[in-house]
Design a protein that fits this description.
261 residues, alpha/beta, Spore Coat Polysaccharide Biosynthesis Protein SpsA, Chain A, seven-stranded mixed sheet, 13 strands, globular
Length: 261
């Protein structure tokens, strides 16, 4: 399996923190935001990780990841303008085919380790797997409708949700996802919607799902970032730091020993 981090967007909901840097380099706790979705992928032991980002701070992401994670085989892909999650994913097709892929949004923070789900997905004949989380405000998210243990429909930000199961920012796909993206037409928002791709898999009967039991949130707004900071301080931040390469940990202990207090 190969990994993909989608780290585009202008980060306007975090302005002015994003005035001079990429949103995904803004701190959550004592670490840049991108470290948490990167940790989610690293736990899956991917062969390589592709990063899709854009804007004037494109090189900042590459510089940071190259400095902190020299052990990872990264490729970088430039998204000129915001055209949706599916459009961003399309840029990595030639680099990840014919492998199955794990895709994570660069502002999503998960507590769980999804290695078991990844192993089962790779062995299966499934085309896609979504990760759903029970929430109190499903109208804010894409919501999965479940019947007889299967996803039958996903509705974006419904006024009257048919469940409280939100679609999180982690997706497993087979390589047919790129052919499906090519068949998409822009939505009313002018974007290529990942929900339309997911519906194609549902209609084929090749979609499965996993319920996320641990913590999940995005850190893309002032309020959600504050909530994420409270959570990562309870242990996830330390786990991420301790998972760094030995040479990176040695550097951190020299320059910023307070991270290990």
């Amino acid at each position: 399996m190969k990994g993909v981090i989608l780290a585009g967007g202008k980060g306007t909901r975090l302005f002015p923190l994003t005035a001079v840097t990429n949103k995904h380099l803004i701190s959550v706790g004592n670490l840049p935001m991108i470290e948490y979705p990167l940790c989610t992928l690293r736990r899956l032991n991917p062969e390589s990780i592709s990063v899709v980002t854009g804007g004037e701070h494109f090189q900042d992401i590459a510089r940071y990841l190259g400095e902190m994670h020299p052990e990872i085989n990264f490729s970088y892909h430039y998204q000129k303008e915001a055209g949706g999650i599916a459009q961003a994913l399309s840029f990595v097709g030639s680099f990840v085919k014919p492998k199955k892929i794990a895709v994570v949004l660069g502002d999503n923070i998960f507590e769980n380790d999804f290695q078991k789900a990844a192993i089962e997905f790779e062995k299966s004949g499934l085309g896609a797997m979504l990760f759903l989380k029970q929430v109190n405000d499903p109208e804010r998210f894409g919501v999965a409708e479940i019947k007889k243990g299967r996803i039958v429909f996903i509705e974006e930000k419904p006024k009257r949700p048919k469940s409280n199961l939100a679609v999180t920012g982690l997706y497993f796909y087979d390589s047919s996802v790129f052919d499906k993206i090519k068949r998409l037409k822009p939505s009313k928002r002018g974007e290529l919607e990942i929900s339309h791709v997911n519906q194609m898999y549902i209609d084929e009967g090749r979609m499965d799902f996993c319920i996320v039991k641990g913590y999940w949130s995005d850190a893309g707004t002032i309020v959600s970032r504050m909530a994420c900071e409270k959570f990562v301080k309870r242990g996830l931040e330390r786990q991420v730091v301790n998972s760094f390469p030995k040479e990176t940990i040695s550097l951190l202990k020299k320059l910023n020993p307070d991270l290990f207090v």
